[in-house]
Queue: 3 jobs
Job 1
Amino acid sequence: MAKYPEQLKLDNQMCFLLYSASRSMTRLYRPLLDELNLTYPQYLVMMVLWESGEKAKLSVGDICEKLMLDTGTVTPLLKRLAAEGYLTRIRDPEDERRVVIRLTDEGCRLRGRAEAVPLQLMCNLGVSDSDTENRDQLMGLLKELVCRLNQ
Amino acid sequence: MAKYPEQLKLDNQMCFLLYSASRSMTRLYRPLLDELNLTYPQYLVMMVLWESGEKAKLSVGDICEKLMLDTGTVTPLLKRLAAEGYLTRIRDPEDERRVVIRLTDEGCRLRGRAEAVPLQLMCNLGVSDSDTENRDQLMGLLKELVCRLNQ
DNA sequence: GTATTTTATATTGTGCACAATATTATTTTA
DNA sequence: TAAAATAATATTGTGCACAATATAAAATAC
């Protein structure tokens, strides 16, 4: 009887593990982000803006680059965040091709509430000090992998 | 000047790394799966079926469980695979609530072509023998994480 | 200085992902 | 055994993800 090829088994595939882990992790964020009225990708965009500073002016392309997403994903996402009142989208008068994204006051205020999210998440996950080592190791390996996957 | 909180930085967030890694990995699969006329989630479903054996009868729920996806994702995906001719969807006469999913001959044949995908992928990634250790370590840590994320 | 090319963003279309709800069949209970 | 509860799948609606294309502005070439 021919054996089923090992490398084709779901359990042996890194990609499926990444896919599962990513979705499971996002699921853990969801109830926390619901309270901020954000989806996970929206939260990512807000983090890019918060991290760039309250007065920062980012282009759509800047945000796409940092998150490795394309305009087809980001443009409508930014429109929804603008509709929520968290940011403004204004065409740059200096270069009419560009659209400048800036935090509104409400978008800035949201950061205060968002700061609690990472800690709350750890708590929900039940992370102890002894897990820190594994966590750091995992993040190191993931960084290497992402690096290699993008050449 | 108040320092920006470390734990809110994108680079320090495991979830973003998982999200990036998962998308980057799927991107690497895409050109290979295009040749099989499959998307990555469709490829996952086919792997579940192949792994269960050519004659296996799986319910929609079985597939949802193995991939940790819900029916809202899987039902239309199965319809597309059925339209491609890779599987059949037949309501179980024993229990009319259930829908039995079975591979067609064409779906079985596709496995032969799919067997090349994992190796081709490694090749594209430029994986060497010395990477095996890191790979095993990463997969171990990911398995642990997924396990914990689903209680 | 106009034509060409490049750059930045938007639009369209398909396929997930998932919450919420609906539908229908089976099982359990009163 | 009729009603209630449970189970299996489907449907609906919103929001990504991304390829392909469109649009328009700026840069460059000629």
Job 2
Amino acid sequence: MKRTKKLQKICELGLEAIPPFNFKYTVYKPSHFPTKLEDFDEASEAMYRTFRLSQNKIIGLKMADLQKARGKEGIIAEVFSNRSLTDQDLQRIRSHISYAYGLNEDIESFYKAVTNDPSIKGPIKKLRGMRVSCFETLFEILNISSMLQNTTVKRSEQMMENMLSSFGRRVDYDGRQLYVFYTPKDIVESSEQMLRELKVGYRAKFLMEIARHFSINPDLEERLKTMSFEDAKEGLMEIRGVGPYSARIALFQYLRRPNEINFDSWKRKIFSRCFFGNENEEVEKVEREAKQRWGDRMGYAGLYVIEDLFVRNPEMQYWRKKNGS
DNA sequence: AGCCAGGACGGAT
DNA sequence: ATCCGTCCTGGC
């Protein structure tokens, strides 16, 4: 059993965003299933989030709205770690946060691109300044996608908790106990049989494949970032266990392509209702309508619709647990 | 108890 | 190119 690591506060970083910036709903997505990788404190509107700079250099962040602290739009991050950090480390932390939350993205161009659809006006008004968030690495987001595929959200949560408690690191900082995501190495050194015991089912083989792929190709992330959309999609699907569904999640979240969205079983129902007033329309019809309304921004528009729905109806979480992902 | 849903794959067509 | 059985588990 691995020990809990205590992290010490190192410093504070201020990061500005291109306005408009919505701190709360950029760092916190009500529609995402909760994991112990992060914890959003509603009362203080602070986001606690872990990640690592290397196998043994662990970071815990406490992020808040820069607007409140310094009157500028962006994020103020308290940095905690188990190691002392160099200037280069701090620079890497900055760029990670900035990329994960799209701080340098021009969100106005999205609003301009969808002005012809009145149905998106409400969500945009409510969530103005919200961006895609993906604090995960590519390896991590593909693990999450694998656990989302072919099951209900309730089971995905279970699998995630089992994997994190077995292979992740426990950390403790600023009064929070969280996990840090496991690495490809942690999984490769394990076995398919061990994964199966964590109730991930047939995914055990896929999770092992993905970990193996990343331990053999450590530069895969950086390579994919420089590729064209088509090449990146192809590159992702070369990994055994990664099909169109997982690739889309990686493309939208990690590679930040605004046109990607999976109309999986629960989203199909939501958008069917949103477009046609009933839950029963087929995926193809829903997808056509989304493309018609939102063109190559359909992923981003979908995000606004979904998050707005979850903000207005917190009980959506419970409805979705029973529905496939 | 039996059957189905939910992605990915691989083999058959 | 498209179709089908298989993998696994939980829910009906």
Job 3
Amino acid sequence: MLTPTAVRSASFPRNAVQPHRKAVHTGHPAADIIELMGTVMPFTRNAEIYGENEPADYLYKVISGAVRTYKVLVDGRRQIGAFHLPGDVFGFETGDEHTFSAEAITDCRVAVVKRNAVMAVAARDTEVARQMWEITACELRRVQEHVLLLVKSAQERVATFLLEMAKRAANGAAVELAMSRQDIADYLGLTIETVSRTLSHLEKTAAIEVPTSRRIVLRNQSALNRLNS
Amino acid sequence: MLTPTAVRSASFPRNAVQPHRKAVHTGHPAADIIELMGTVMPFTRNAEIYGENEPADYLYKVISGAVRTYKVLVDGRRQIGAFHLPGDVFGFETGDEHTFSAEAITDCRVAVVKRNAVMAVAARDTEVARQMWEITACELRRVQEHVLLLVKSAQERVATFLLEMAKRAANGAAVELAMSRQDIADYLGLTIETVSRTLSHLEKTAAIEVPTSRRIVLRNQSALNRLNS
DNA sequence: CGTGCAGTTGAGCAAATTCAACGCTTGTGG
DNA sequence: CCACAAGCGTTGAATTTGCTCAACTGCACG
């Protein structure tokens, strides 16, 4: 199931990344540092970007496509920790090793930068250090939200998920889902059947429209917000 | 139900806290800064330490007793984000406002320090800044663990909770619980009845012993670990 | 001695999972 | 070009899990 057609990233950048010192003073949002200092790498659908327990030597930023970070529990179930869309930074670990695995959901391009390089800059430039902290703090808030999501009912979880995706996509009320039902289920702590049934139910109650399985139109956002609890 | 006998912390420290500059260079672990720079305040059982959406002007560290941070959902349910025991830092927010509320579970003493004061030090001292970041990162890992907890079965959640408490108490296989069944339930995303039943079941299967409702002896830690999934 | 609170236990119910079947699309090989 | 297998998604039926409602116990406190 996991990475069925996965292409192991054999071309992982061992070549050092040159920090462009001047870039970090331009006042760009925090995540831009990685893009400015890094190398853009392509990953094919389902390719592993890094694995749990591998050394966390790089930081990543999605340029295009989508990425999932996940953990496989001892009983074989998979819990997806986050979906990363263009602009999102990931692979930002505290210790020396990744605590999650990361895979490309779709073909995608990812900016990669040596953690050392960024840290070296951060050691000298307090503004960069502050931005690194900021990224960690944002991630913390996001995970706290995820905790609140997981104690809701199935309907509420799906509704919250759709609203979240709609907000991030920001192209109005239509969402083009990069991920499969299984991905959604593993993110929401539900089964694919429950996700599917819930979407069908939401469609029947005119809250959404599902022209294709990957495309969802939010018809009645306030109804979803009400479920959002 | 919430804070039934709560004593609003009328004596919240508006008096400025004097930073002792020299303390921060002693190489103590990160959390010590707050203790060194701060003022120790007592809180009575169920007293509110701060509320959601209040300005996050202070950082806190538990000296003695126990603290819960929580959020009340729109449907009235309460989700506890964390239990803080002696040595734990809390109230560490990213924005200007607290995203959770904090209450004393038991009578407790808490070191309090002005956020500004710490931040001012951190701006000059990169080591302090690094420690602040470290605390955020630790919190991030803890919340990520909480996500993994919430997708498990009731048995697994309770078992995991007991093992976590045993590890933190670190007085062997016996746990003295500071919190009520309701607190535990709200932390685990279960009902009190389910928590109670699960504990009874674990006792029947000889995994634990419950001499008093607040005291739990882990008889068969490996059995719990197996449930821990 | 009664009152109130915390915890336990039971019975019935609702929600979500499991197991199974089926439809649709896509890609592959004859 | 068609046949067919594989993957993904949907739907139905049976089952399980945890929740709701309710009663009851033990204990502390006035």
